[in-house]
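2024-03-11 09:14:02 INFO worker-7 job=invfold-0412 stage=load source=structure_tokens
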């Protein structure tokens, strides 16, 4: 955190950002640096496990689903990272069933169903987006449908990564359900 504070202070001193926007920049730099660091660590994990491309599919797919439709969000960066590592390891372990296409297509179908049943989960901190709920829901459904069609078409020609695609849909669906349960529980 010291480096983020130093960077923000440096930019304020150089008059690149106004003093009154200090907290906004601290938050933005914190999220940016955390995302870069955690993404690199997740991809490095995939590389170490000799499943780099599967890790790319799982991480980028999960980020896409989270950013368009939301889902569970951990309370701290550490918890978020540990949750993502656990999810990545579960997703990569689907390689052990990569020859069981019926099971993989079933996981993809269940994950897709969950994503369509719960197309949008707004974190309580994003209550200001409530007026945009309909538009965001449609966007999430379109993204999910587009990715699903892409996966089906892609797997006609290249099915060696079906396990990674199935894992990301399934894990994203679980994240949506977990987020919905967590945020409904908090608001009760």
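2024-03-11 09:14:09 INFO worker-7 stage=emit residues=188
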């Amino acid at each position: 955190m010291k480096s983020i504070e130093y960077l923000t202070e440096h930019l304020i001193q150089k008059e690149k950002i106004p003093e009154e926007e200090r907290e906004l920049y601290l938050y933005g730099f914190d999220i940016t640096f955390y995302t870069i660091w955690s993404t690199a660590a997740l991809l490095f994990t995939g590389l170490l496990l000799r499943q780099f491309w599967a890790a790319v599919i799982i991480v980028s797919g999960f980020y896409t689903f989270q950013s368009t439709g939301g889902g569970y969000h951990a309370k701290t960066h550490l918890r978020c990272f540990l949750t993502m590592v656990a999810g990545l390891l579960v997703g990569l372990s689907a390689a052990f069933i990569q020859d069981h296409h019926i099971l993989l297509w079933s996981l993809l179908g269940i994950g897709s169903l969950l994503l369509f049943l719960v197309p949008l989960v707004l974190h309580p901190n994003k209550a200001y987006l409530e007026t945009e709920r309909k538009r965001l829901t449609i966007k999430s459904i379109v993204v999910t449908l587009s990715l699903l069609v892409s996966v089906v078409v892609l797997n006609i020609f290249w099915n060696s990564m079906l396990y990674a695609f199935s894992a990301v849909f399934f894990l994203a669906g679980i994240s949506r359900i977990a987020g919905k349960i967590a945020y409904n529980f908090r608001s009760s």
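2024-03-11 09:14:09 INFO worker-7 stage=report msg="The chain has two domains: 1-48, 51-187."
2024-03-11 09:14:10 INFO worker-7 job finished
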